[in-house]
Specification:
By secondary structure, this protein is of the alpha/beta class. The protein has helices at about 10-25, 65-75, 85-90, 95-115, 150-170, 195-200, 220-235, 250-265, 290-295, 300-315, 315-325, 330-335; strands spanning about 1-5, 30-35, 55, 75-80, 120-125, 175-180, 185, 205-210, 215-220, 220, 240-245, 250, 270-275. Helix 1 (about 10-25) packs across helix 7, helix 2 (about 65-75) packs parallel to helix 4 (about 95-115) and helix 4 (about 95-115) runs parallel beside helix 5. The N and C termini lie far apart (about 50 Å). The mean pLDDT is about 95. The structure holds nicotinamide-adenine-dinucleotide and 2'deoxy-thymidine-5'-diphospho-alpha-D-glucose (DAU). 2'deoxy-thymidine-5'-diphospho-alpha-D-glucose binds near residues 86, 125, 193 and 217. Nicotinamide-adenine-dinucleotide binds next to helix 1, strand 2, helix 4 and strand 5.
């Protein structure tokens, strides 16, 4: 069994590679990653010498490189994590989101059609459903919820999902799609809420909360997401979409306060800043389908997951300090000004 994992030098892709190498010792895992600002080869250091693992630096939009790799590896399964993933960057510069997230998906599926594949799995997001109001806690996203996107990021992911469904219906490509809620855990790039707040708090820097901090996200520990994808590619039904979520809705401000408490830092570091444009209010996933059909349930309670995550950032300062001292500083200054 050979599995191509795209975007494996990023947050979720790397965690998925670690999970797969451990859970399926006989499998060959081939990682394709362009190593954009969000990809980090040091993340994969511990598997680089594994004989069941190969890393290839390539852009999923590069048809020639992708076809060559398929000719060399004859993959059974492709799991596509590669994407531009940060909403704020999509507001700043949408174009690369359309290129990678839509056209890159097309190139991968064309390769699957040309060389044959048992399964193409698209890693999508709950953001394709848009958002829910705060005053209707009874509402949740199901797989039937209409697509209703808010940001260039979510629009590009929704476009990719539609293309994946079209390749299934038109060409019979054996696909599955998963739409997951917000992940957290080790190797999360420090531009995202939880790692940004941990890194800033550890450096006694201000903690920039957008708007009033009342937006709600449904947080899932990354290892639980990886296990769900493992189940879908082995047991999921071809042509189906599966929602994945933690049943763990939390307001941003409560997350930030919890991080302050865990790190023994004062809440006075919290600074309310200009809201994100088009900011989605609330996400909430109904994961009934994946539970009933595949027996998946989130295993990590948020109280445990956030402790594991904070401990990981404390134990791996080199990893994130290298990132925040590089090109990321320019992004931070553009986004947050002189906030210290
Ligand atoms: P990430 O930004 O941490 O990693 C993305 C990886 O893709 C990086 O290693 C980057 O170098 C690589 N990449 C980007 N463009 C590429 C290209 N053109 N060719 C090859 N590689 C390229 O992202 P993440 O948070 O790990 O998200 C992974 C996937 O999961 C994305 O598709 C995202 O939409 C989806 N997702 C993320 C979350 C979340 O909470 N982070 C939740 C649901 C779904
Ligand atoms: O829901 C799944 C999505 O979750 C994924 O598809 C995306 O790839 C992933 O980035 C994430 O998107 P969000 O926009 O929800 O995540 P982010 O960490 O950027 O922000 C979480 C919330 O925190 C959001 O309401 C905005 C807010 N926020 C974020 C940052 C970076 C702040 O208040 N301050 C900040 O500095």
């Amino acid at each position: 069994m050979t599995i191509i994992v795209t975007g494996g030098a990023g947050f979720i892709g790397s965690n998925f590679i670690f999970h797969m190498l451990e859970a399926h010792p006989g499998y060959r895992i081939v990682c394709i990653d362009k190593l954009t600002y969000a990809g980090n080869l040091s993340t994969l250091a511990r598997v680089m010498c594994d004989t069941n693992f190969r890393f290839v630096r390539a852009d999923i939009c590069d048809r020639k490189a992708i076809y060559k790799l398929f000719e060399e590896e004859h993959p059974n399964i492709v799991v596509n994590f590669a994407a531009e993933s940060h909403v704020d960057r999509s507001i700043e510069n949408p174009e690369v989101f359309l290129q990678t997230n839509i056209l890159g998906t097309q190139v991968l599926m064309d390769a699957c059609r040309k060389y044959g594949i048992d399964r193409y799995h698209q890693v999508s997001t709950d953001e394709v459903y848009g958002d829910l109001p705060l005053d209707r806690p009874d509402l949740m996203f199901t797989e039937e919820t209409p697509i209703h996107t808010s940001s260039p990021y979510s629009a590009s992911k929704a476009a990719a999902d539609l293309l994946v469904l079209a390749y299934h219906r038109t060409f019979g490509l054996p696909i599955t799609i998963s739409r997951c809620s917000n992940n957290y855990g080790p190797y999360h790039f420090p531009e995202k809420l939880i790692p940004l707040m941990i890194a800033n708090a550890l450096n006694d820097k201000k903690l920039p909360v957008y708007g009033e901090g009342l937006n709600v996200r449904d947080w899932l520990y990354v290892a639980d997401h990886c296990k769900a994808i493992d189940l879908i590619i082995h047991k999921g039904k071809v042509g189906e979409i599966y929602n994945i979520g933690g049943h763990n809705e939390m307001r941003n401000i409560d997350i930030v306060k919890l991080i302050c408490k865990n790190l023994d830092k004062p809440e006075s570091l919290i600074t309310y800043v200009t809201d994100r444009k088009g900011h989605d209010m609330r996400y909430a996933i109904d994961p009934t389908k994946i539970h009933d059909e595949l027996g998946w349930l989130p295993e990590t309670k948020f109280a445990d997951g956030i402790k594991l995550t904070i401990d990981w950032y404390l134990d791996n300062r080199d990893w994130w300090e290298t990132i925040i001292s590089g090109e990321y500083r320019n992004y931070y200054e553009r986004m947050y000004g002189e906030l210290q």
